[in-house]
Amino acid sequence: MYGYHLWAVLRESTEESDRGSLERKAEGLRRLVRERLNGGQGPEGCVLGVNGRLVFQCSGGANQRGDDHESLRDVLRYVTTELPGSYGLVYWYDDEDPGRGRFDGYRVIVIDRGRLHDRFDPFLSPTDPPVEDGPARGHPAGTRSPGTRRFVRRPRMTVRRAMVAVAMVAVPLGFWSRAMLDRRHDRLAEAAYHARREGEERRNLDAFAEARRAGPVGASVQKMEQASRLRVRYHAGRKGVYQHAAARPWASVPPDPGEPGERLLWESMLITDSPVEFRIPSGDLKNLSLSHP
Predict the structure, then answer these.
(1) In tens digits, what is the pLDDT along the chain, a chain of 293 residues?
(2) Which of 88, 99, 125, 278 pairs as cysteine with 269 (C-beta 3.0–4.6 A)?
(3) Would you tell me how many other CB atoms lie within 10 Å of the CB of residue 185?
(4) Using the 8-state DSSP alphabet, how is residue 105 labeled?
C-alpha cells in the first residue's frame, strides 16, 4: 500500500510571498495536480487561502505505488521551480518499498528554498508501535515481509538520563583526578629532594674551591670534588625530570640511572693524603660491590 500526505506554504521567493504572479502560478499548480495526482483524478481544493497565505495540501494513495510517486515528485518540482520561496513537508509510505529492510516507517520530502530533500521520519517511525499495533501491515498475524527488520528508535534524552550519564562519567573521572593529584604531589616531593641534594653538592664544590685557593689539594680531595661535580649534574637533571613529570602526572617518568660518583668517594677514602683517615680492611674492600663507575 502506498500513500502520501502533503503540506506546503506557497511563496514566489524567500523575500516576498507574492511578486505579482502568485495566483497565476497557483492556478498552474491546480491544473497539474488534477492531471498528475491520483491517476488523473487529483483532489479539488488542494490550494486554498489561509490567513492571507496560499497553502498547498493534499493526500493520496493507491494499492500499488506504480507511477504515483514519480507524478508526485513532478508536482513538487513544479513548486520548487516556479515558487522557490515555498516550504513544507511530504510524508509518504510504501509497505513494498525495497528499502524497508533498513527502515520500517515513513519517509519525508522536505521542501525549502527551491530544493527537495529526502529524509527519514523520526516521529512516527517505525509505525509499529507508535501508530499501529499487532501484525505487520499486509501480512498474516505474527509475520513480517521477508527481509525486513524493525527500525530502532534512538532513546530520548531526558533530564534524569542526562544526570545519570553525567554521574557515570564524573565518578571515574573524580577517582582519576584524585590519583593524578596524588602523583603530582609525589613528583613535586621528588623534585624538592633533588633540589636539596643539588644545593648540598654545590656547597661542597664551593668548599673545594676555597681549599684550592688556600693551597694545593691532595688526590683524595680531587676525587671528592669530581664526585660532587657528577652529582650536581645528576641531581639538577633529575630535578628537571620530576618538575616536568609533575606538570604531566599521567605520563611516565624516565628510569633513574642512580647517583654517580660512589666509586670516586671510596677511592678518595683509601688515599693517605686525606686529612681524614679511613681504615677499611682489605678483605672487606675485595668484597665491596660498587654499582657505579
Answers:
(1) 888 999 999 999 888 888 888 889 989 998 888 888 876 556 677 888 888 889 998 888 888 777 888 888 999 999 999 999 999 999 988 877 765 556 678 889 999 989 999 998 888 887 766 676 655 444 444 444 444 445 455 667 788 888 998 999 999 999 999 999 999 999 999 999 999 999 999 999 998 888 888 888 888 888 888 899 999 999 999 999 999 999 999 999 999 888 888 888 888 777 765 454 444 444 444 444 444 44
(2) 278
(3) 12
(4) S
Cα angle 139, 140, 146 (rounded to 5 degrees) comes to 50
**Rg of the Cα atoms in the chain:** 43
Rounded Cα distance between 53 and 9, Å, is: 7
- Rounded Cα distance between 216 and 38, Å, is 116
Q: Which three cell numbers stand for residue 117?
A: 530533500
DSSP state of 83: -
* Secondary structure class of 109 (helix, strand, coil): strand
- The residues that bridge with 10 in the sheet, in sequence order, are 54
Quickly tell me which residue has 521567493 as its cell.
13
Backbone angles phi, psi at 154, to 5 degrees: -70, 140
**CA–CA gap between residue 19 and residue 13 (Å, rounded):** 8
| CA pair distance 23, 11, nearest whole angstrom | 10
CA 255 → CA 102, 128, 241, 252, distances in Å?
56, 63, 10, 9
d(CA 28, CA 149) in angstroms, rounded, equals 42
Q: Count the helix, strand and coil residues of the chain and give each as a percent rounded to the nearest 5.
A: 45, 15, 40
In the numeric block, the cell 513544507 is attached to 88
Where does the chain have alpha helices with state H?
Answer: 22-36, 68-82, 159-214, 219-247, 262-269, 282-287
Phi, psi of 161 (to 5 degrees): -65, -35
What is the distance between the alpha carbons of residues 58 and 71, in angstroms, rounded to a whole number? 14
